[in-house]
Amino acid sequence: MIGSPKIRVDGPEKVSGTAKYALEYKVDSPLYAVPVKSTINRGSVASINVDEVEELPGVVKVIHAGNAMKLKSFKNAPPYVLVGQKRAPLQDKQVDYIGQDVALVLAETLEDAIWAGRQLKVEYSQEQGDGNIYDLKGKTVKPEQGMLQFEMGAFAEAKNNSSTSVEATYTIPSEHHNPMEISNCIALWDGDRLTVYDATQGVNNYQACTAWCFETDPKNVRVISKYIGGGFGCKGSYWSHTVLAAIAAKMLDRPVKINLSREDMFTSAGHRPRTLQNITITGDQDGKVTGIQHKTNSYTNIEQKYFESCGNLTRVLYDIPNMSVSHEYKPLNLPSPVYMRAPGEAPGSFALESAMDEYAAKIKMDPIEFRLKNYAEVCPFDKKPWSLKKLRECYAKGAEIFGWDQRKQEPKNNMRDGKLIGYGMATSTYPANRAGGAVRLVMDAKGILTVQTAVQDIGTGTWTVMGQIAADAMGISSEMVNMELGDTDFPQGFVSGGSNLTATAGSYIIIAVKKFKEKLLQLSIAQEKSPHYQSSVEDLSIQEGMVESINGNKEKIGEIIKRSGKDTYDFTDKSQVGKGGFGYNKDAPYSSHSFGVIFAEVEIDPDLGVITVPRLTGVFDVGKIMNSKTGKSQLYGGMVWGYGMALLEKTDYNPEGRVVNADLAEYHVPVNADIRELTVDYIDEPDYNFSEHGGRGIGEIGIVGTAAAIANAVYNATGKRVRDLPITMDKLI
Ligand code: MOS
Question: What domains appear along the chain, each with residue ranges and CATH number?
């Protein structure tokens, strides 16, 4: 089953409209909640015309800092309580940014609530704030945590001794995730027990965060997320909509439905912060790089420290003896930025891979040859062997598929039908992440295996792929597997983020199924009426739903359950990896990363600067592919995101920190008509040093490098180096 292009098990439900998303659950007489957001970036709420608005038709209540139920602060919460903002909503009158929740209107219908929200007049006592994302210098903080400041060798010395160097600054605007499904939920209390139907990348995280602020045992909070219309990072951390719905439902003793507006998504669910990156690469004329300096400036929220780690991949990608990687952040009166698809690596790769192209151009070397000259045979920053690295194979296969040999080394040297043609490439990488979790396995007398674990499918194919993995491990067909996901009543799983989930849950399911099989076989050999009575477990195997012995005795697996006298046989198992956490594991014997290469062809109108991308090719080393259909779709999707990053996406703010293009008419994301030929391939080799099935994550790597490949192709076509995304026609004429 593993690897086969099984169609999505949730496909028919999704296309026929019967898949139930969070807000579609039926609850008795719900109230509709609409949040009202601040219009100043710093100060406090002075007054609200609550009485007036509560008189409006259908309005039940206006909740604000003066009357909201009090919650426990997130300020000292442990890291597993992963919040998007440290300040829970409506707990005090302080305002830190434009778009902060200052009130919540509850009404009998959504229309009444929206209307009443618009009639709410909030007066402020305003103070001088700073929401200017265009000035990232001055009054910055240098975080110590993680690998954000990293020195190896002596960069300054390397620079002094080098014969060649390039230095450039790259800027990437703020960007918003904009999933199709807007953040929403239903909150429903039954005594002290709360049920939340939400759209989250981590049901256990939303459970932990809710339990934390309501000061209750997580057992009292059930979070259900069966279908999610995209997350991309904005539904991983915990945001205010869930808290608001839960507060209102508690205070008014009725189920509450909340659905943010598209505009709210620009203030209340995170974003990728604007970054300014300065890179210096030093080396010799033959293409050996001796030193690299990568400095990142960005911003974060006043209270919630989020750091966009652009320099992380620089430590990993090339064999460079002298490295200096640093990050600085300016706290601003803005909603907190947060993880957005390939956080760190996506913006970091635009800068690094553009700078690498600049160096190759300067010494007139082929960009792939240049990268191969600096190929990292071991992980550069910790010197560990790779668990498996097939980047060289990616370069070769990608160059072949794309026809890289047709590239002209000199820019502005290739015309086709009056258009400038350019070829560009960039390397892609993303860390391989794997955490732990638990799963319950239940087999019935029909031989159907039910698999329960509290993970969620954010649209990536988790329902399908986990079924394939479980079936493969059990030795049954995937039609005999019944997956049950997206509910905190199941054993604790893990968040869908950092491209970890297939490696995480896939591995702990395989480990559990192996033990479960052993237990079932033990049961069988102890049953007097079993054809395998008193056999040895080593002589038995399970294939295609049959237990088979080496001497040819066979029976259906469900027969073991039938004879047991019980309806089902079940088993719960939990496995940990490393410290059970996530991210870089310094105790691991290997360094585990995925790699790839992106090739882009651009076609540019020399008079108008109009850019089209006739071809994008990506070849990836992501370990074993679990499902060649959903897997390819993930990689296509990442590359489409990279296209958007390169040419379209940009959130503009005014100097106070107000988003001025908070809708999909003015925040441009790619559509089908933008995307021409898209080719994805991979080196399908299992990385068993990393996961049980040999797969690594694939959700994010597709975006990494794509913007740089396009920018490098633009340079190749025009001789113009655009270092400021998105690349728009005005920058080319
Ligand atoms: Mo992803 S940005 O790690 O949810």
Answer: 344-350+382-410+428-433+585-713+723-731 (3.30.365.10), 436-576 (3.30.365.10)
